[in-house]
Amino acid sequence: MGVAGSTGPVMDRDEVDRALARLGAEHEAIETSLLALQDHAGRRLLEGAELTGVTKERWESTEASITLLWAYFDAYSDALRSAREIRSRRRWSSREDLVELTELLRGEAVTVAGSATAMANAPTLPGAGRLSEQFSLSTLVDRMNDLYAASLDMVVAADAVWSALPARIDLLAAELQRTRQLAHSVGVRPGEHPAGDDLERITRTLTRLREEVISDPLAYWVPAPGSSAPGGGRPDISTYDREARALDDVRREIEAVLTVRQDAEARLVKLRDVLSRADRTLAEARSARGEVLAKIAATEVPVVSGPPTVLQEQLALAAEYRRHGQWHRLSPLLESLEQKADDELLRARESLTAVTAPLAVRAELRGRLDAYKAKVARHGLAEDSLLVERYDVARRMLWSAPCDLRVAEQAVLRYQHAVAELLGTPVPGRQEPQDRGGEES
């Protein structure tokens, strides 16, 4: 070990040989990386693309960094070659050789003369803007590593976006074109149907998205939080995904319209049948109301409205749409009509039930009266005068017209009460009528 100088102790021959071997390995690794960067598909695409926005700014800086990187590498190669030449002068290097090698291998003996443009476009580097700088070989390696990582990060990010999005957009655009043709075949057009408007909007969005991705891929790059590795992140495909979902929605709607075209006639026939049943049920309810008013007294009978003409008009319009192949108009109309027709049939049935309720009450009273008469006969009380009298009164009321249900029910209850007294059983769930002695004959 020699006397210490400005670069520290003078290196001996073994130290020099080890340093040269390490520097040689680093030189080979750096050269391999630089050549790989030079041949990277993303870098070639960036060189030939008409860039805009953040990608244009980043690429201008990256191009300058790559230029500076090669300048650093050339200076590094020259210094390494000089050191090897000094070491190869003699087998056993002299002290003067070792001092020179120590200065070259450890000191700031490497001068890099770069262009002002290259330096100015590498703002991340200390001392950027100077026309030349002095480096030690280790500092130069660190500087090259930093430049390489930043350059590769930019190239990989742009390449990742270009690899992920344009192909997907093209596939979606092809699917969009097929959907547009299908939509046109069923009359779904812009300005006439919401799905047609959606297709126009999706088309415009995809066209703009592709243009932006091609010219400014870094605008669609999301760096990974906390990642320092080159290319750490992912392409932003949120806009693509949103439009893909929107196209799926439109496609389902158009498929629904196609389904309408295929089964429109069957659905129209079913609609006519449902509305016809509703009309017949309402007619039955109106007829039953007349019967109830004639046969039942002292009761409220709801009024039965006629069939709504608007449904028949809409049904005629639906048939018109089918004849003219206006499937996009027929689809929502059929869905609305089917729901309204079901509601109308339900309303008609409820009207019939409400109107015939008094007749059902009378029928229940008649059945109850006859059931108690049969019970009396089984117990041998069919000839009991009070039971015969009360039965005749109840029966006369129930089989006469108009029938007063309230009075008739009281008569049936009196008969039930009389039967219960004779048999010694209660009348379930019924109010007890008056005493036997207070009954009318």
Instruction: Please count the beta strands (DSSP E, at least 2 residues each).
Output: 8
Q: How much helical structure, as a percent, in the residues?
A: over 70%
Indicate the overall shape. Answer: elongated
Radius of gyration, in angstroms, nearest whole number: 50 Å
Strand content: under 5%
**Low-confidence runs (pLDDT<50, min 5 residues)?**
1-5, 429-441
Number of domains: 4
What does it look like?
- This protein has 4 domains: 4-158, no CATH class; 162-261; 267-356, no CATH class; 359-438, no CATH class.
- Helices cover 72% and strands 5% of the residues.
- It has 12 helices and 8 strands.
- It has a two-stranded antiparallel ribbon with strand order 1-2. The protein has a two-stranded antiparallel sheet with strand order 3-4.
- The N and C termini lie far apart (146 Å).
- The model is unreliable at 1-5 and 429-441 (pLDDT under 50).
- Keywords: Coiled coil.
- Residues 247-288 form a coiled coil.
Short description:
Keywords: Coiled coil. With 441 residues, this protein is mainly α. 72% of the residues lie in helices and 5% in strands.
